[in-house]
Structure formats: structure tokens, C-alpha cells
Amino acid sequence: MSAPLLSLSGVHTHIGPYHILQGVDLQVPRGQLTMLLGRNGAGKSTTLRTIMGLWRASVGEIGFGGASLKGLGTADIARRGIAYVPENMGIFSDLTVRENMLLAARSGPLDGARLEWIVKLFPSIRQFWSKPAGKLSGGQKQMVALGRALAEPRALYMFDEPSKGLAPVMVDSMVAALRALKEEGATVLLVEQNLAVAQALGDSVAVMDAGRVIHHGGMAQLAADADLQQRLLGLHLGAAPQRAPAGVAP
């Protein structure tokens, strides 16, 4: 295992009267794609939101690149080099696709070569360049959201269920884009319910239940162990109802 870029140790998060995260321990190795899996309500999205400072950890430590994120605001955390695409995509609906992309380049003008790489991954970005983002379909909005996250190289990319609600062809595009990101040596933390996508992309995996990480290991190990999948997730990859992405054996 590579040295972790991101580490959570004993993280608890309260939202109002609700105790959502109950001692999360998680490590995200550098240069790998880590899957964060679990049943609905396990705390996966809250974990990402806590890392980004959208919810504040009440107890515990969050380390990133050897420094603590504790007490930092969301904007400061993003400036440390973390890109985050929430489940609701987080695009600016009243702005054009072009304006959304330009705003995502925080450190200066959008690099032309990188933009060409992004539009090869997501051709709809070029197709709808001058169109208000709010007028796009759900799948097209998701492609814009992913493209925005890639507008600049980041130390860590976090995606919350990017395949949710996408047509199969859009899922294939998303998987291809994340594979390309992996080939760049990027570090990715991906929450996903589509287990075929998880199997296709994951290097390491952490499984959550009831606000805690209850399993961590290699994605290939989990994919090969139907009994472990059943125990941790209540189903197994071989019986997953989702269509496998293009190029992935069912």
C-alpha cells in the first residue's frame, strides 16, 4: 500500500441531534482509486462532506498531505488541492458550460491543452459550450460537473455517486474518464453504488456501516469473495443488477 495522502482517525460528526459518523478510520493511498462503499445511510456522503468542512467533525483528526484539515473552512480545504463533486453535482445552473469551466480554474486561465483532454473525455462539454448548464439533461450536467473537477490537476479528487441516474452510455464515458485520471497517477476517493463500476475502477476499498468503516482492503479481494460481499453489502458483485461498463466482463 502506498503512503496515505488522506487519513481520518476516530472522526465523529454530529448533525443537529444526530450522531452520523461514529469513529471513522480511513486511509486513502496516494496514486490509487479508493472506493467507499456501503448500504444507504451508512455515512459515506457525510464522510466526504466532513472532509470538505461542509460538516464539522466533532471529534477526531483529518490529515491531508501531512497537515491537519481540522478547523479549516471549505474554501481553504479546496485550496489545499482537493476537488469535490457532490451527489447534487454542484454546477452553476444560470451560467453557461463555458463559464462553469472557467470558474473551475482557480489558479488562472483554463489551460487549453487540459481543456482539450477534458472535452475528449466528455464531448458534450464542447457540444453545449455556450448553453446554460441548467438546460442540460441530468447526464450532461454530471459530465460538466466531472469536467469542472478536472479543470486543474488536484492532489485529491472526491466524487459522490457520479453514476447515479446516468444512462449506460454515460456510465461508460464516466468510467473511461476516471480510468484516464488514474493513468495520470491521480488520487481518487469515490463513493459509488454501482458495484460493476466499483469493480472496474477500484484499487482499494473501504466499506462503511452505521457510521464506521467496517472493512478495508483490496478491491480485487472483495470482488473475488462473494461471501464477504454478502456479509458487508447484502449482495455480491456477480449478482449486481447494474449493467457492467463497456469492456468489463459481467
Question: What secondary-structure arrangement, pairings included, does this model have?
Answer:
Layout: E1 4-15, E2 18-29, E3 33-38, H1 44-51, E4 57-64, E5 67-68, H2 74-79, E6 82-85, H3 97-104, H4 112-121, H5 123-127, H6 138-149, E7 156-160, H7 168-183, E8 188-191, H8 195-201, E9 204-209, E10 212-218, H9 219-223, H10 226-233
Parallel strand pairs: 3-8, 3-9, 6-7, 7-8
Antiparallel strand pairs: 1-2, 1-4, 4-5, 9-10
Helix pairs in contact: 3-6
Q: List the total number of helices.
A: 10
Low-confidence spans: 238-244
- Give the strand content: 25-35%
Number of strands: 10
Distance between the termini: 28 Å
- The CATH architecture of the largest domain would be 3-Layer(aba) Sandwich
- Cα shape: globular
Number of discrete domains: 2
CATH class of the largest domain: Alpha Beta
CATH topology of the largest domain: Rossmann fold
Task: Tell me the Rg in angstroms.
Answer: 18 Å
Q: CATH homologous superfamily name of the largest domain?
A: P-loop containing nucleotide triphosphate hydrolases
What is the N-to-C succession of helices and strands?
EEEHEEHEHHHHEHEHEEHH
How would you portray this structure in words?
The protein has 250 residues and is an alpha/beta fold. It has two domains: 4-81 and 154-239, P-loop containing nucleotide triphosphate hydrolases (Rossmann fold, 3-Layer(aba) Sandwich), CATH 3.40.50.300; 93-153, no CATH class. Helices cover 34% and strands 26% of the residues. The protein is built from ten helices and ten strands. Strands 6-7-8-3-9-10 form a six-stranded mixed sheet, sandwiched between helices. It has a four-stranded antiparallel sheet with strand order 2-1-4-5. α7 links the parallel β7 and β8 (188-191). α3 packs parallel to α6. 43% of the residues are buried.
